[in-house]
User: Fold this.
Amino acid sequence: MAKKQFKAESKRLLEMMINSIYTQREIFLRELISNSSDAIDKMYYKALTDESLVFNKEDYYIKLSADKANRTLTITDTGIGMSKEELENNLGVIAKSGSLAFKKENESKDGHNIIGQFGVGFYAAFMVADVVTVISKAQGGDEAFKWESKGADGYTIVPAEKDSVGTEITLKIKENTEDDNYDEYLEEYRLKAIVKKYSDFIRYPIKMDTKGQRLKEDSEDEFEEYQEEQTVNSMVPIWRKNKSELTQEDYDNFYAEKRYGFDKPLKHIHISADGAVVYQAILFIPESTPFDYYTKEYEKGLELYSNGVLIMNKCSDLLPDYFGFVKGMVDSEDLSLNISREMLQHDRQLTLIAKNIKNKIKSQLQSLLKDEREKYEKFYNAFGRQLKFGVYNEYGMHKDVLQDLLMFTSSKEKKLVTLDEYVAAMPEDQKYIYYASGPSIERIEKLPQTEMVSDKGYEILYFTDDIDEFAIKMLMTYKEKEFKSVSSGDLGIEPDAEDKQTEEEENDNKALFESMKGILADKVKNVRASKRLKSHPVCLSTEGEVTIEMEKILKAMPNGQDVQADKVLEININHEVFQSLKDAFEKDQDKLNLYTNLLYNQALLIEGLQVNDPVEFTNNICKIMV
Assistant:
């Protein structure tokens, strides 16, 4: 019996296959089961054109049999089988598969598809087996043949005995090593788990002889072991069923079975697309944030199936980052897979599916916002930060997609409102969308800077998330209304008679403010009379793009960016403290220095900024007490 050598390029490919193409050894079973499913599909196709053949689906199955004593795992199918020539061509030349050629010759409109467009999957068996033996009898053939190989050294083909049409693949499982446990591929529970993970939705039954225990007949406490044949795959995936025959409970159970989360999903999206690209998908909007969601360890992505076979656990290309919270799966027959089926070729089909999914998610979120506000707010409290980051990320590229989904707490409503709701409620004379930033709503409500805007009856949006202001800066406007911080130098509010008087008094006190600015040196850009303060003596406002809240956030980052907001110290000239400042300016320069530094540090504390010298600050307080 002469051993045949693989062709040189095939030998190199086989060595690569065994050592590096697949990321997980368990994939071998997925590949062999997929090949068996292909073989049954081919029989089905043949029956469509050959009147002498009758395809009874009940007669077709795949069976797994593990023999621990002999360390063998056998995968048997009742498919079309292979002749000697087909064994030679399909298994002797790696990366040549009969499936693609067969598919081209037997195109059908009935929805069946041949999975195995590459012949390389078969060789994944050598990751777990020392010897692979294939005995096959082709439909219409009189003889069976045995193909056997120990890997890259070559293979043999000899006549064999087999009564029925189909293929039987036997793997001689490798011995354990210090680092690798190959015994697991002989264990019933492990084989079942692999089938459930990758091949649960193969359309034909995958059978195993499973062991169980039962009470002996006529006994109340004696048990006996028994064995029975069991189908270990579910065959019909939920996403291929009509939506009308599915209940909410069915979707919730699927969410739990797939371990998408420990919560219940807020909403599901069931897609059956039959256009430029054909695919099915079930997507879920979760109720709560996974514990690791905002960490580097979290992997976004959807499960990806090709014709019912799991190809990827997390296909990140199907979801934009800003919708990374969505869970679920996609199944398509139109994907171009690479040699190992574990990665996708970036092609038009994938792009079309991803675009469609993005639009469906946005549409569902908008529907939730409009029709089920309470549910949307629950979702937003969990994942709103992700949407805001999506607005900010990639230089605002996705802001148009996301802006209508954003919500912020309103100073008037005392609850979350959308930007659209805010703009719709604006008085005609209001020029800007006003916002205030701070660590909490309670802190923001106490900010002196909010007084003037509130007194005018204008609504303020409260920004309590560190990403809020950065996202809004990227958004710039909403419905042609510009965003304006209440700490901004120019609030765009027309001065009333009282404010005009302030302008006159500012001119009268110009020398005082210049002196205070000199005392504070480079700590502030300017000192001036305030138009926004009513009851508070002092506050800080800013000029330029960087606000005080942004400065705090940037400084707190790991790389510690030394970014400074251009601060302006604003003094309430109608407050009794101002008279003390004027008196000190006219009579006592030391007191003016003391008061100026105290007011500046007060303003810093109001903003939650660190006082430069706490000891000096406390000493200064003591000075005014004696």
About this structure: The two ends are 111 Å apart (CA to CA).
